């Protein structure tokens, strides 16, 4: 067996609840949380309506077994409890939990962008983590099928920004900057592009209103990605294109 085949077989396909079922479940979870129920009572790791998506049958990988899902849940919660300890600021655990999720899930690339899968994991399998991390979890959007999902935001954080990159750019990376990256697929799926964004943002730190600068630069990168393919650009061309946009933003903000 080739190394590529072995790698695929080590990648896991996770359960997916149909959209209507997931929405009903999120509404139910919201109602129960508002009523003060213990979120651990909301955990469900198997359901007859779960699927692994028919279109994924030919991609290889293995469907997660219920026992694996329970063990995965236990490991993630153990890491969360160890991280939170006596810390009163749950957001400070995000970097470690991003690494834990990224390493533990071993998710198949074909499922990475499946927002229903992320919604299923957050709502059915790990609702107690979501509630522990977010004080406003009862509002529901942290369980939902988008990039604000409590789990996908962590996975894509580590996919886009390695631990080494977080340490290297700790002087400019805050929660807002990270979330701006995570919520944009053009960045969170392209580590090279994310690194270039961070390098340029650091070089332009003297710009007034740094937060507005990097938000504007991220918008420019998103626009560039919609009309071009940055992943196919050479490092030199990519650097030139982003600096050209950074210069325009700097001039605009100086007025």
What's the topology here?
Elements: H1 3-9, E1 12-13, H2 19-34, E2 62-63, H3 66-84, H4 94-105, H5 115-125, H6 127-133, H7 152-160, H8 163-168, H9 175-182, H10 185-188, H11 191-203, H12 210-227, H13 235-254
Parallel strand pairs: 1-2
Helix pairs in contact: 2-5, 3-4, 4-7, 5-6, 7-9, 11-13, 12-13
Task: Report a brief summary of the structure.
The chain has 255 residues and is mainly alpha-helical. It has helices spanning 3-9, 19-34, 66-84, 94-105, 115-125, 127-133, 152-160, 163-168, 175-182, 185-188, 191-203, 210-227, 235-254, and strands spanning 12-13, 62-63. It has a two-stranded parallel ribbon with strand order 1-2.
3D architecture notes:
By secondary structure, the chain is an all-alpha fold. Helices cover about 60% and strands about 0% of the residues. It contains 13 helices and 2 strands. It has helices at about 5-10, 20-35, 65-85, 95-105, 115-125, 125-135, 150-160, 165-170, 175-180, 185-190, 190-205, 210-225, 235-255, and strands at about 10-15, 60-65. A two-stranded parallel ribbon has the order 1-2. It is globular and about 55 Å long. It starts with a helix and ends with a helix. The relative contact order is 0.10. Mean pLDDT is about 90; it is low at about 1-10.
Sheet-strand content, in percent, reads under 5%
What is the overall pLDDT average? 89
Overall geometric form: globular
Rounded to the nearest angstrom, the distance between the terminal CA atoms is 61 Å
Summarize the main sheet: 2 strands, parallel
**Share of residues in helices:** 55-70%
- How would you describe the oligomerization state of the chains in this entry? single chain
Order of helices and strands: HEHEHHHHHHHHHHH
Number of DSSP helical runs? 13
């Amino acid at each position: 067996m080739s190394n590529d085949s072995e790698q695929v077989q080590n990648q896991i396909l996770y359960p997916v609840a149909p959209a209507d079922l997931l929405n009903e479940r999120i509404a139910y979870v919201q109602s129960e949380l508002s009523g003060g129920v213990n979120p651990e009572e909301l955990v469900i790791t198997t359901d007859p309506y779960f699927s692994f998506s028919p279109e994924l049958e030919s991609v290889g990988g293995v469907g997660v077994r219920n026992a694996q899902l329970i063990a995965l849940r236990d490991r993630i919660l153990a890491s969360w409890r160890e991280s939170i300890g006596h810390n009163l600021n749950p957001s400070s655990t995000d970097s470690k939990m991003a690494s834990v999720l990224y390493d533990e899930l071993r998710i198949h690339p074909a499922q990475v962008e499946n927002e229903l899968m992320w919604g299923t994991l957050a709502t059915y399998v790990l609702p107690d983590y979501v509630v522990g991390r977010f004080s406003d979890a009862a509002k529901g959007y942290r369980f939902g099928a988008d990039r604000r999902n409590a789990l996908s935001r962590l996975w894509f954080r580590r996919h886009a920004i390695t631990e080494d990159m977080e340490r290297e750019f700790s002087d400019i990376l805050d929660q807002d900057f990270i979330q701006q990256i995570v919520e944009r697929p053009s960045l969170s799926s392209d580590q090279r592009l994310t690194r270039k964004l961070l390098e340029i943002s650091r070089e332009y730190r003297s710009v007034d209103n740094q937060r507005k600068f990097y938000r504007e630069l991220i918008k420019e990168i998103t626009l560039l990605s919609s009309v071009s393919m940055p992943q196919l650009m050479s490092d030199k061309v990519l650097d030139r294109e982003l600096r050209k946009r950074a210069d325009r933003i700097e001039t605009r903000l100086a007025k």
